[in-house]
Design brief:
Number of strands of chain A: 0
Number of helices of chain B: 5
Low-confidence stretches of chain A: 1-11
Mean pLDDT of chain B: 87
Largest interface: A-B, 104 and 113 residues
Number of strands of chain B: 13
Oligomer: heterodimer
Distance between the termini of chain A: 25 Å
Strand content of chain B: 15-25%
Structural class of chain B: alpha+beta
Distance between the termini of chain B: 37 Å
Structural class of chain A: mainly alpha
Shape of chain A: globular
Helix content of chain A: 55-70%
Radius of gyration of chain B: 25 Å
Largest sheet of chain A: none
Helix content of chain B: 25-40%
Order of helices and strands of chain B: HHHEEEEHEEEEEEEEEH
Chain lengths: ~550, ~300
């Protein structure tokens, strides 16, 4: 590929702007905005993580030791809101911003100014949300799902609702930008069915975002008018229905959980072939499976509501639809394993995180399948079994994929290799402690411990203590990650090659490391042999 | 924990693991309990067996998939001189690993549907109890028993005083010391339990007076939300007399963790005696407060 040639013909009169404010606050550069997103996400990971530490500290042993129950409820609600909307989603948008233009041979995102706006909304949204913790009435304490009538009792509802509106606007603009980039800005010859799976996964995710964020905005707006403007959407005293909120919320909420996992599928589908040195098994099946999961995500929302007293027919429908999701998801897992089979594998840190993802996400998928069975869910619902399940898919799923992606692309971003030793120290500590943290929660849930409780019977004491110890150590382990990132960006002496990984394929590896401020100003000439999926005929 | 404690714990684990896998009804959660309990109603084996079946299926699939993965990681590593192959497609295996899961799912769905249908059938009940959730206590009203309506038996049921004192922040009291007999009842005991007869199909009609709660006694095998403005129905037929403990399972505000449920299942004769005592004029119940059908607007209450 002839990137270097094209770059030489181009005088570099527009490198990165010099001033800090100019460079970061006014940026329209996809790489700088991607970096901002990733730094923001890491910051939120630690803020949300500190809430989790407080939760685990209170749950360390029975009895109330550290905080009032209401504050505990604020912590559970804020932990979820910050992690979902502040850590996981912006991390994927950041990765998308950085990598999608590089992967499809585009000079930048299609709508660079909007890109700036969609990032810079986020710090304000979270400042608004987090400020509620310092207000007299306290923050939202009705769970991240904000079910009425409970959420209507919160005095900071308006703050939370406006913060969610801002996050929604940001997400929708980000999604529009990604769709426009992928559909309009691909280099000639980068056909849709030659795109990397990560790009495919983001294209589909972006459609999910546009479809469901307005539903969330609508639901929370109705909460707002119920509380402040005398409407009765959810107030039975005025002819409303609290269950209506749950339907609207989960119509958003279920696609939302796939918004947080489909890009992770994409990342794993990039990492595994690179380190197995073998093309991904069943490229078309992988893309089709993502599309399938995305479609099914719209018709399974009420599986979050099996215990609200749905009619029998509805319970049966949502049970079957939910179970169906395990088929395309299973196909993805089988295909990753088949990609490894017959490969020539090495186990650098990104690959370790990818392998841990496949195993631990699958465990989360298994508990998900169990929960789809309505009679069993009557027992699982709202217990620690659920907490274990969604942390397996979100922490060892989404978060592990993000961390793997950071290790995978960091040399391309910074031009330096990270410390493989400390990367592995980070990995092994993460994978051990995350299981010590979340696996016992399955037992707690099965034994009957409800979720969102600050105190519990002594029968639950043993596993809670184990879980808390795992939690503290998992949290501390992430400080290693920060160390590795800082070392890689500023101190590492080992320069990365352009290709970085021996088995890496695709356009992003044809540009220099670190990636210059502007890339592909002239569309690259696509050579199918250089692409990961240049010759897809199956 | 001392080493004796650890040894005791291991013994207890083994005993409990055996007990819970061996379908013994547990009235309350046990330390180191690993699996769902079998329950103590005619229906509660349904979630228990579904749970065990699904867990077994998942374990087998997991062993196959992860086993294949570990074999691949061992055999096809570059350090052992493995050379990457070029293939990236195989229609036969793809069809196989799409079809087999579908067949497994159909089996599981069939089992679950049958159990769900029996759960949804509340007809033919011999007794009706109305359950109302409040922040943060439960109210039980006895509606009818054996075809006769009961109109004066109803009471509030809230966390017992010992647990309530112990659970206060900085109380300095030991949760391990809250016991009834040998059983630790910290946060799992109430001042006045729900009393019901054994071998009777009891229909529970469940609603709420303020926010959403969820009425859950694991021994029944189910939980169902108590929602203002909506009356949900479910049934249970207890097979063994005993004391069964549960908790509110839907976040309902600051004291969500502190509104347990206790169901005392008595023999029919004992229950008849208990009911007669309750119906006697001397034991006139407190007037029933407003309930959910006329839910007052919930405003300003700190939850």
């Amino acid at each position: 590929m002839s990137y270097a040639a094209t770059h030489d013909q181009h005088d570099d009169h527009h490198g990165a702007p010099k001033g800090f404010f100019q460079r970061w606050c006014m940026s329209t550069n996809h790489k700088d905005i991607g970096t901002l997103y990733l730094i923001f996400s890491l910051t939120m990971l630690f803020i949300g993580g500190s809430f989790a530490m407080l939760i685990r500290a209170e749950l360390f042993k029975p009895g109330m030791q550290l905080m009032q129950p209401y504050f505990f409820n604020e912590m559970t609600a804020m932990h979820a809101l910050v992690m979902i909307f502040g850590a996981i989603m912006p991390a994927f948008v950041g990765l998308g911003n950085w990598m999608i233009p590089l992967m499809v041979g585009a000079p930048d995102m299609a709508l660079p100014r909007m890109n700036n706006l969609s990032f810079w909304i986020l710090p304000f949204a979270f400042a608004l949300l987090l400020s509620t913790l310092f207000l007299p009435g306290g923050g939202p304490a009705g769970g991240w799902t904000m079910y009425p009538p409970l959420s209507l009792q919160s005095s900071s509802l308006a703050y939370a609702v406006f913060a969610i509106h801002l996050m929604g606007i940001s997400s929708i603009m980000g999604a529009i930008n990604i769709i426009a980039t992928i559909l309009n800005m691909r280099a000639p010859g980068m056909d849709l069915m030659k795109m990397p799976v990560f790009v495919w996964s983001w294209l589909i995710t972006a459609f999910l975002l546009i479809a469901v964020m307005p539903a969330l905005a609508g639901a929370v707006t109705m909460l707002l008018t119920d509380k402040y403007f005398g409407t009765n959407f959810f107030n039975p005293g005025g002819g409303g229905d609290p269950v209506l909120y749950q339907h609207i919320f989960w119509f958003f909420g279920h696609p939302e959980v796939y918004i947080m996992i489909l890009p992770a599928f994409g990342i794993i589908s990039e990492i595994v072939p690179t380190f197995a040195r073998k093309p991904i098994f069943g490229y078309k099946a992988m893309v089709f499976a993502i599309a399938c999961i995305a479609f099914l995500s719209f018709i399974v929302w009420a599986h979050h509501m099996f215990a609200v007293g749905l009619p029998l027919g509805a319970e049966i429908f949502f049970m079957y639809a939910t179970m169906l999701i395990s088929v395309p998801t299973g196909v993805k897992v089988f295909n990753w394993v088949a990609t490894m089979w017959g490969g020539s594998m090495t186990f650098e840190t990104p690959m370790l995180f990818a392998i841990a993802f496949i195993i631990l996400f699958t465990i989360g998928g298994f508990s998900g399948l169990m929960m789809a069975l309505v009679p069993a869910d009557f027992q699982y619902h709202d217990t620690y079994f659920i907490v274990a399940h969604f942390h397996y898919v979100l922490v060892t799923g989404a978060l592990f994929a993000i961390i793997g992606a950071a290790y995978y692309w960091m040399p391309k971003w910074t031009g330096n290799m990270y410390s493989e030793f400390w990367g592995k120290v980070h990995f092994w500590n993460s994978v051990v402690w995350v299981n010590v943290l979340f696996f016992p929660q399955h037992f707690l849930g099965l034994a009957g411990m409800p979720r969102r409780i600050p105190d519990y019977n002594v029968a639950f004491a043993n596993f809670n203590m184990i879980s808390s110890i795992g939690g503290f150590l998992f949290g501390a382990t992430q400080l290693i990650f920060v160390g590795v990132l800082i070392h890689c960006a500023f101190f590492s002496k080992k320069k990365a090659t352009d290709r970085v990984w021996e088995g890496a394929k695709g356009l992003e590896w044809t540009i220099p490391s670190p990636a210059p401020h502007h890339t592909f100003e002239v569309p690259p000439v696509i050579n199918d042999d250089e692409l990961a999926h240049g010759h897809v005929n199956d | 924990m001392t080493s004796g404690g650890i040894r005791r714990s291991f013994t207890a684990t083994a005993a409990l693991a055996l007990a819970s896998f061996g379908s013994v009804a547990l009235a309350a959660p046990g330390p180191w309990q690993l699996n769902m309990e079998r329950g103590a109603s005619t229906w509660s084996h349904v979630p228990y067996h579904l749970n065990n079946t699904a867990l077994a299926v998942c374990t087998v699939i997991g062993m196959l998939v992860f086993g294949a993965m570990f074999i691949a990681m061992f055999r096809f590593r570059k350090s052992r001189g493995a050379v990457a192959e070029k293939w990236s497609h195989n229609t036969t295996v793809e069809v196989v690993w799409t079809t087999i899961p579908v067949l497994i799912l159909i089996t599981l769905a069939y089992m679950a549907t049958g159990g769900l249908t029996t759960w949804a059938d509340t007809t033919g009940s011999q007794m009706t109890v109305k359950v109302t959730g409040y922040q943060w206590k439960w109210r039980y009203d006895y509606v009818d028993y054996m075809g006769k309506s009961i109109d004066k038996v109803g009471f509030m049921s809230k966390l017992d005083t010992r647990s309530d004192q112990t659970r206060q922040l900085g109380s300095g009291m030991d949760p391990f010391a809250v016991k009834v007999g040998d059983e630790n009842t910290y946060l799992l005991d109430v001042d006045k339990p729900l009393v019901v007869p054994v071998d009777t199909k009891i229909r529970f009609v469940i609603t709420s007076g303020d926010v959403i709660h969820s009425w859950w006694v694991p021994a029944t095998g189910w939980k169902i939300d108590a929602i203002p403005g909506i009356i949900n129905a479910a049934w249970a037929n207890f097979t063994t007399p005993g004391t069964y403990r549960g908790q509110c399972a839907e976040l309902c505000g600051q004291d969500h963790a502190f509104m347990p449920i206790v169901v005392v299942v008595k023999s029919k004769a004992d229950f008849a005696k208990w009911l007669a005592e309750q119906e006697a004029p001397s034991a006139a119940p407190a007037p029933a407060p407003q309930t959910a059908q006329v839910a007052a607007p919930v405003a300003g209450k700190q939850g």
